[in-house]
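hey can u check if this looks right to u? its 303 residues, i copy pasted from the old doc so theres a chance i mangled smth
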Amino acid sequence: MSSPTALVADNLTKIIGRRTIVDAVSFSLDPGEVFGFLGPNGAGKTTTIRMLVGLIRPTAGSVTICGVDLRRDFEKAMRNVGCIVENPDLYRFLTGRENLEHFARMLGVKTSEIDRVAALVSLAHRLDQRVGTYSLGMRQRLGIAQALLGDPRVLILDEPANGLDPAGIREIRELLRRLARERGMSVFVSSHLLAEIELMCDRVAIIHHGTILREGPVRDLISSRREMEFRVGDVARAAEIARERGLTVRADTDRLWISIDENDAPPLVAAFAAAGVPLFHASRRVDTLEEMFLQATGGETVD
C-alpha cells in the first residue's frame, strides 16, 4: 500500500482584524520530495508556516500531516514533524551533545538517537565541543539535527541557509537532498535564496498577498517559456522570415529571440539558409527561477 501524502494544507486562511494575511492557500507534499515556499516581504510565508506547525490557529482550512488532522489530534500529527521556525534555539555555553540531550528529554526521545542525528548532519566529530565554538553553518546543522530527533517524516525549515557562506549553503542543500532521497523524508523549506531553491527543490509554490500564484515542479515552471536565441548576420531579414511564419520575434543588433519550441527550429534554420542569412549560433533560452518569480510577483523581492 502506498504511503499517504506527507502533508496537506487545504484552503488555509488567516484573518487578523479586517486584514486577510493568508487567503485559501492549498498545497501538498509527497514523501521524499523537497518543496520550496517563496514569497516577497509580507506575502504570508511565516504565517503559513506557523499554521502548519500549530503555533497559530487558522481562521479557516485545515492541515493534515501523514493522514492526521492537526487540529483534531495535535500531538499525534506533530510526532511526524521536525521543524525550525526562524533561528534554531541553541544554548551556546553547552556542547552540541548537551543541547541535543536537552531537546531529546523534552521530546521524550531516547538519547541513543543523538549519535544517529549527529552523523546525519556530519557533526559527530564536534558534538562534544561547546556550541559557542561552532561556525554559523555548524549551528544550522545542529539545529537541523535537533529537528531530526524522533525520526520525523516531515521536516519544516524556515530559512535554513540564512547567513551562510557558499560552502555552508552547499552543505545544507546536499544534506536536505540526501534526507529526502535516502530516507524518504518530505522537506518543506522557505528561503529567499532563489538560485539555491532552484537547485534544491523538486517543486515550489509562490505566495503573494496571501495567495498562491504558481505551484508546480521547478523544471516545468522555469521551462514554460518556449523561446530560442539566434545570432545571425542579417537580423532584419531573419526577423522578417520568422514573422512570415507567424512567430513572435524580439530583435537586437546582432541577434533575435523567437517564441518557438526547440523541436520546431530546424525548418526555420533551413529557411534562414535558403534566404542566405548567415546563422552563427542558436540555443534555447532557459528561464531561471528568479526570472519566473519576479515576473509572477511584479518584481517584488523575497524576504
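The mean pLDDT is 87.
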